Structures are given as structure tokens and as C-alpha cells.
Amino acid sequence: MLRTFFLSMPLCVLALAPQVSQAAEPEQCRAVRMAEPGWNDLAFTTGVASVLFDALGYKPQSTLLGIDVIYAALKNNDLDVFLGYWDPAMVANFGPYKQDGSVETVLINLEGAKYTFAVPTYVWEAGVKDVADLKKFADKFGNKMYGIEPGSNQLMMDAIADPSLGLNGWEVVESSEAGMLSEVGYRIKEKNFVVFQGWAPHPMNTMYDFKYLTGGDKFYGPNFGAATVSTQVRKGYLEACRNAAQLLKNLSFDIEFENTGMGYLINDGMAPLDAAQKAISENEARLDAWLQGVTTFDGKPALDAVKAKLGL
């Protein structure tokens, strides 16, 4: 009887019935749990992802963690997304998780990066042009090389442990990216010797006059540690949260864009979300590619929603 009643209702009456909005994602996908290790490049790119996810109706969360903790958290389903797999610098960190399949790589989000030993230009001109030259000036360096956060300097430690380099007794001074750069800036001002971890993208490449050392290929890879940066997720995330996954598959950067955004953090003292929003607003055309095939969390057009949220 009830079935007959509904089948006999005029279509115009049915059309007046409340329409239920169909979400693009399951509710458990609304929170997007991300992490970054305190590096300005990843603080910025994670900020970009957070701004976009927020504008799409998700609830992005970003946590500051060490690299080893990030991978353990991805494996244990305590995190969803990591935008900062530097290859080859982090091959050893990722290796066990790649082998057991608990962490999946989505795409290379940055090409043209590099990461290796660096010294001020006046140190390079004094004869330190290769990693093998460090031992000749051990006293001037104070038998120290300067790194970033603990857990991020293993390649420097590997170099010290390599008998062929004669760096026995050297130590890696670990602090943070900001702490390392502050020390480098001070030593350059005083014309003192210092060897540190340099990389691009980063405003340090224009802030300071320095050179990358040859001879670090064994540790950082060829061509001055030429690297790529990739987006990674916990196992199963791409299938479980397909709309969020599509954004991650689209989200790629370039050196110039990251240098600019990182400059907002380092030189202008902006918070990551503010720097990200400024960079996106100044590069509005990037949204077309980033949001291709993406909707809001509740299934509405993504581009309109993001532009409205950001006032573009």
C-alpha cells in the first residue's frame, strides 16, 4: 500500500521533498592529518595544502614531528599526509616503510632541489672546494659541522664516520634550521670558517654568499645532492579519501614559488598559513591545475569555493 502511494504521487510533489546533499567524501576523511619536520620549505608547502583543504571544507591539521616519528605515525594510521620525502637524502628513513607497504608515494611535488655540504665563498676560495678538503682545515672549523633538527643530519654523521675523509673527532652541531642559519650568518659576518647543510629551494641561496662542495655524492647523491621531493600518504588513504587524494595528486610546486613562499616565513616573519595564503593569492592561476577534478568536501565546485574563501 505504502509503495503504491509513493509511486502514484505526482512528480511535482516529489520535487518539493527536501534534497539531501551527497558528500564527496566519507566523514572520516574530513580531518586531514599532516606533519612536517620544522623545515621552512615543508612548513610552507604544508601551509599551502592546509589553506586549500580548509577552503574545500576539510579540517586540516599540521603537527611538527621528527622524520622518524612521521614515518612511524603514517604506518600506525596516526597521520595521513607527508609532503616532504626528499630523495635520496631520506631513502634510509623511508626504506622500511616502502618495503612493508605501509607508506605510499603519491607523486613528485618538486624537482630541481639539491641538498649537500656548503661553505661560505671565502672559505671555498681559501681551498675548501671538496668534502675531502675539510680535514686540512679542521682547526679553523673547530672540528664541527652544523646541521638542522636532530634526526635530520644522518648524512653528515655518515661522512664523519667514513675513514676515507679523515674526519675522526668531528661532531655535528644539531639545533634547527633557524638555529643553523643564525650561526652561519654570524660566522659569515665574522669571516670565520663554517661548513653546514645547504639546500635549494631556500632563501639562503640569495641571503648568503656560499658554495656547495663537491665530493658529497656518496652521501647526498650526484650533482650536489640533486633531489626530488615527493608527497606520501599512509597505506589506503588514496582509496579511502579519493577527493582529498585528487588534490594531493595535483599539488606540485617549483623552486621559484617555494623560494618566494619561504622568504615570507624567514625574512618577513609570517606564519605558514599566512605565507601560503599570500603566495596562493599572488599565483591565482595555479589553482586551475591544483583543483582539476577536485570538489569541496560536500561535492561542490572546488575553484569557486577556494576563490570565495580567499577573496580572489
From TrEMBL:
Top-level taxon: Bacteria
Q: Name one GO cellular component term.
A: periplasmic space
**What is any Pfam family matched here?**
OpuAC
Every copy of the ABC-type glycine betaine transport system substrate-binding domain together lies at 32-280
Signal sequence extent: 1-23
Q: Which GO terms describe its molecular function?
A: choline binding; transmembrane transporter activity
Protein name listed in UniProt:
Glycine/betaine ABC transporter substrate-binding protein
Organism encoding this protein: Mesorhizobium mediterraneum
